[in-house]
Structures are given as C-alpha cells and as structure tokens.
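Data availability (excerpt). The following record was deposited with the supplementary files.
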Amino acid sequence: MAKFNPWHDVSRGENAPQLINGIIEIPKGSKAKYELDKDSGLLKLDRVLFSAVHYPAAYGFIPQTYCDDKDPLDILVLCSVDLVPMCVVEAKVIGVMQMIDGDEEDDKIIAVAAHDISVNHFNELEDLPPHTLLEMQRFFEDYKALEHKHVTVERFMGREQAYRIIEESIELYNTTFNKEGAVAETSPSA
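Predicted structure:
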C-alpha cells in the first residue's frame, strides 16, 4: 500500500508561481511550532515557542518545492478566517520575505487566500496595511531569541522576485526527487 505524503503528493497548483497551493502547518495566532514529518507525512509538534509571541499569519509550505535548507519552500498566507493545520489553500503570491536563520537563507513567500474576498484584492506587498509587514518581521526576529538563536530579516521583495524563488524551488525539487517523491538517483544530494 502506497503512503500519502502532502509534500510530494499534493499539487503545487496549475498556475504556479502566481497562484499556488499552500499546505498550512501552523494557524495564525499559534505558539505551537508544528511541522510536517517528512517520513510519515503527518504533522508533528516541533516545539512550543520559547518567546511570548505568536504566528502573525497562517504558516506552511508549498508542496513539490525544495530549498537549500532541505525543506519545502515556506509560505505565510493571509486570510480573514483561521486556517487549520493540514488545510490546502489556494494562495495568490504577493511577495517574499528574505531572512537568514542561523547561517542559512530561509525565504518566506507571502500570499493571500485566493478565495477570501477580504484579502484577495491585495496584489503587492505595498497593498497590505503597513503594520502587517512590521509584525511579520518582528515575529521572525524575536521568535527564537530566547533559544539563543539569531534570525535576521534581510528584506521584503515584490511578487516578481517571489515568482523567481518559487520557480527555483520547483526546479530544485524536480532535480532532487523522482515522480514518487523519493530522492532521484541522479540527484547531487543523493
């Protein structure tokens, strides 16, 4: 019996990189850091955040993408309702937050729920309420501080740069994994 893994078996979306599927791991407002267990495909509790902060948007990943940090590409999805863990949400990409976590690049795609009339009119980061990006930056710069880990938000960039990052993560996924989601025989990381 084949096992289902959301990372490998859910479509990234037919209109990627502009409109993509995001799989939510962490709902907005959570102090719990959930993440996909890559082997089982289940959601696991990684930790409860050490700091008195909570996620400023629904947080998850884009399926069938891969980054240098050996994880799928991260996504923050703005939505007017709570998105539950393991929900697949069609999201319109509006930008990217580039950050350094430890010594690794760790991009976060910023998107809005495509089928939420309260947010789907946002097309660019500049369309968001000004405080939204400040909240995101402050959260990611603070959430690991009490663990004595350093995160720096380098910059926010627009949707064209976000599209490029998504396309690169798709290309890396396609060269790293075969159609069944296993590491490809010709993969440089195998």
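Summary of structural features: Residues 159-176 form the longest helix (18 residues).
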